[in-house]
């Protein structure tokens, strides 16, 4: 029997009060994660691989170097990540209403 692969590759979870782990969502190819850590320096969730994945990491130091060397590209990256953060905040707000 063939085992079906999940539609997503990564699962995002957080620990809530009373030690309960809650799933926030799933990610697949092309998605971004931990954008908050780039700007704030702190991770906000745990991410677990469901399948083998390849990730590209852009830390704050790399982002700053990108800004010095290629300011237009860094601005575009920052704008895109800001839009993603805004969309996720709006989605989270909608879920708790």
Order of helices and strands: EEHEHH
Shape annotation:
globular
State the assembly state of the protein chains.
single chain
Please describe the biggest sheet, giving its number of strands, its sense, and whether it closes into a barrel: 3 strands, antiparallel
**Spatial gap, N to C terminus:** 43 Å
Any idea how many domains?
Answer: 1
Which structural class fits the helix and strand makeup? alpha+beta
Helical content band:
40-55%
Q: Overall pLDDT, averaged?
A: 84
Largest sheet: spatial strand order: 2-1-3
Beta percentage is: 15-25%
| Strands, total number | 3
**Number of helices, counting only DSSP H or I runs of 4 residues or more:** 3
List low-pLDDT spans.
Answer: none
Q: How large is the radius of gyration?
A: 16 Å
Identify the notable features of this structure and list them briefly.
97 residues, alpha+beta, three-stranded antiparallel beta sheet, 3 helices, 43% helix, globular
């Amino acid at each position: 029997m063939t085992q079906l692969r999940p539609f997503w590759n990564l699962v995002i979870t957080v620990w809530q009060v009373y030690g309960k782990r809650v799933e926030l969502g799933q990610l697949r190819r092309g998605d971004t994660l931990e954008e908050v850590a780039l700007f704030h320096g702190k991770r906000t969730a745990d991410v677990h691989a469901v399948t083998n994945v390849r990730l590209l990491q852009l830390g704050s130091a790399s982002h700053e170097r990108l800004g010095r060397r290629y300011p237009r590209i860094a601005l575009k990256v920052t704008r895109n990540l800001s839009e993603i953060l805004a969309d996720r905040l709006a989605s989270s707000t909608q879920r708790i209403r």
